[in-house]
Amino acid sequence: MTWRTKFVDYDARRNPRTDRHCCMCQRDLRPGQAHRHVYLLADLLALHPGDFDKREPLASDLGWHLMGMDCARKFGMDWTAGHAGFGPTSPVAPSHDP
Ligand SMILES: [Zn+2]
Fold this sequence. Notes:
This protein is mostly beta strands. It has one domain (5-79). It has one helix and four strands; from the N terminus they run ββββα. The protein has one helix spanning 69-75, and strands at residues 5-7, 35-41, 45-47, 63-68. Strands 1-3-2-4 form a four-stranded antiparallel sheet. A hairpin with a 3-residue loop joins β2 (35-41) and β3 (45-47). The structure holds zinc ion. The site of zinc ion has 7 residues, from α1. Residues 22, 24-25, 27, 68, 70-71 line the site of zinc ion.
């Protein structure tokens, strides 16, 4: 079984001030600022959301990281998810059912 991965060519020169920052440009994200989520394997390889169900998570995975919208567009929106969470259809808005 294979899955698609893509290297996140991040900007290592910046030092993020907070732990809420884009994993690519390392810029801090303001509270409420639009962003996407990427699932990173070891060595900063992003796992394509369409291949989540082909792979078991490993302890060495870096897991979910935030990515700003500008970087997500550059990186490829289809490589990012709207919400963190495993699975091809990550958790969406909560149901309004009582
Ligand atoms: Zn960024």
